[in-house]
Specification:
heterodimer, A: 314 residues, mainly alpha, 12 helices, 0% strand, B: mainly alpha, MetI-like fold, 9 helices, elongated
Chain lengths: 314, 273
């Protein structure tokens, strides 16, 4: 297990290095001077020169890359050009919206998908299964931002149960914060839940066909007991993989959803940074997001190996 | 049985949108470039089947032209993914276990670490928003998907006797890949292509909703939704119809993909995805 973890850790480091080179290179290939790009067309040459200096653009390519990376490792993500505060500080504030939103959505989608998938698998071929499969097929086809707009239309415009957007901050109390995140979390969660429920269903159906389930039934367990004691745990393995994969979709989804609901999270930060040409923020936040995705993949791999010893030898 | 019904429903839905998009090249009920404030926010009916938007543009015409942008972006993105991913996958499978295989697969993992939207954001940050950049972003994201499917399909084929026979006959790895492996994984690629096509439609809608896709005045479903968001109190119809178009198109493609999978390869029929 330790050896497996170590090899995965080396490949994680290599991926991170490669990702950082790619991101750095993309920002570097900007046609022309990044400082001039950030300041716009009518910039004063002196201001551009000053910005070049503050950004450290006068150093060599390699030195700048090392600078950026060693800064990131020390928690220094550079200074936002538009906000005039350290990027790390901005990210720190925004994380308090984005992380709870992601966690809320992930919890919702798991809580919906696992029972629904189980239910459909247990009633395979029946009307319940048919209904669930139809509903999930529809759920996959619905763009989450449009679903978000429909939620606003029904629950904010018509019923006035929730506000159409914005975030009061956690200072107003836990309840107000959670309430503001509810519609966004539902909008993020349902399309994910549709995919997850399908995976749960097919994984369970596959497991139920295995020999050890037949043995369990033969030794006298009822179908329900066999599912609870043996099939469910084994079927969770592919579900775990998909949950890990969905993290990256969740991040992408959050970028859109935060914009629909005007939530001050990382997604909105990166989007605003683009429109304001704040390349430092774009570069660092993209790196952080990719870092998060790669780390989650790593953790899922480890969890996977911990659950299923067969996977350690690879 | 189910597969046949899915294939028909999905095929009809998808074909409907493709036809509407194609028709929009030569004819639309009303010009979408002309703003007509006198006719703004007309309810459905009369000369305007689905009514008009806040600029007096006919919604039916907008949806038809929007279908064109969506389909064009998704189609070219699938082309990029297949064009680059399939040769890479074949290459990796031909050199399975070797250094080349390792490099190709690790590069794939790397692209997978960037969510499509993040790729799009990076590209947009550098080159500015445009339909072309949306195509690139979605296309790049498609590459590892096709590479993986191709490699997986090809790997199982390389162990078969008829490939061994081809090698004994003196054919090289490249020729075997093209002449024997590719035709036999075509089914897989067609099915994956349909899935990626539908994902491309969704991604294009998301990007253009954020303003990172096709730029005004080109109508696109995503931007129609973005513009409708401010009108949601006065004209919810504007926020509902383009979304419905996206859902029906994606649903059609997904059903068609499932149906095709069942029709093309009965071995894959076991459990639906």
């Amino acid at each position: 297990m330790l050896r497996f973890a170590l090899t995965r850790l080396i490949s994680l480091t290599l991926s991170l290095l490669a990702a950082s080179v790619v991101i750095f290179a993309v920002i570097e290939v900007i046609p022309g001077d990044p400082a001039a790009y950030m300041l716009g067309l009518n910039a004063d040459p002196d201001a551009v020169a000053a910005l070049r200096d503050t950004l450290g653009l006068n150093g060599s390519l390699g030195a700048r890359y090392l600078d950026w990376i060693s800064g990131m490792l020390r928690g220094d993500f550079g200074q936002s050009y538009t906000y005039r505060v350290p990027v790390a500080e901005l990210v720190g504030q925004r994380l308090w919206v984005s992380l709870p939103l992601a966690g809320y959505a992930l919890a919702l989608s798991t809580l919906i998908a696992v029972p629904v998938g189980l239910w459909a698998a247990a009633r395979r071929g029946g009307p319940v299964d048919f209904g669930v499969m139809g509903a999930t097929q529809l759920g996959i086809a619905v763009p989450n931002f449009w679903f978000a707009m429909l939620l606003v239309l029904v629950f904010a415009v018509k019923l006035h149960w929730f506000s159409a957007g914005g975030f009061p901050g956690w200072e107003d109390g836990l309840f107000a914060g959670i309430k503001a995140l509810t519609l966004p979390a539902v909008a993020l969660a349902l399309p994910q839940a549709a995919i997850l429920a399908r995976v749960m269903r097919s994984a369970l159906i596959e497991t139920l066909g295995q020999d050890y389930i037949r043995s369990a039934r033969a030794k006298g367990l009822t179908r329900g007991q066999a599912i609870r004691r043996h099939a469910f745990r084994n079927a969770l393995i592919p579900v775990l993989t998909i949950l890990g994969l969905q993290f990256s979709f969740l991040i992408a989804g959050a970028i859109i959803i935060e914009n629909v609901f005007f939530l001050p999270g990382l997604g909105r930060l990166i989007f605003q940074a683009i429109t304001q040409r704040d390349l430092i923020v774009v570069e660092s936040v993209v790196m952080l997001l990719v870092f998060a995705v790669i780390c989650v993949t790593f953790l899922v791999d480890l969890a996977y190996a911990a659950v299923d010893p067969r996977l350690r030898r690879r | 049985m189910m597969g046949r019904a899915q294939l028909i429903v999905g095929g009809v839905l998808s074909a409907g949108f493709v036809l509407a998009a194609a028709l929009s090249l030569v004819w639309v009920p009303h010009d979408v470039a002309a703003l007509n404030i006198a006719e703004r926010l007309r309810p459905p009916g009369g000369a305007y089947l689905l009514g008009t938007d806040q600029f007096g543009r006919d919604l039916v015409s907008m949806l038809m032209v929007g279908a064109r942008s969506s389909i064009a972006v998704a189609l070219v993105a699938v082309g990029i993914g297949m064009g680059v991913g399939v040769p890479l996958g074949l290459l990796a499978a031909a050199h399975r276990g070797g250094l080349l295989d390792e490099i190709v697969m690790r590069a794939n993992d790397l692209i997978f670490a960037f969510p499509a939207l993040v790729i799009a954001i990076l590209i947009t940050a550098v080159f500015g928003p445009s339909a072309l950049n949306a195509i690139l972003a979605i296309g790049i994201f498609n590459i590892p998907v096709f590479a993986r499917v191709t490699r997986g399909g090809a790997l199982s084929l390389w162990t078969l006797d008829y490939i061994l026979a081809a090698r004994v006959a003196g054919k090289g790895a490249a020729r075997i890949s093209v002449e024997h492996i590719l035709p036999n994984i075509a089914n897989l690629l067609i099915v994956q292509g349909t899935i990626q096509f539908s994902l491309g439609i969704l991604a294009e809608a998301g990007l253009s909703y954020l303003g990172l896709g096709a730029q005004p005045p080109t109508p696109s479903w995503g931007r129609m939704l973005a513009e409708a968001q401010t009108m949601i109190y006065t004209a919810p119809r504007l926020a509902i119809l383009p979304g419905l178009a996206i859902v029906l198109m994606v649903l059609g493609l997904n059903l068609m993909g499932d149906g095709l999978r069942d029709a093309l390869d009965p071995r894959l029929r076991r459990v639906a995805r």
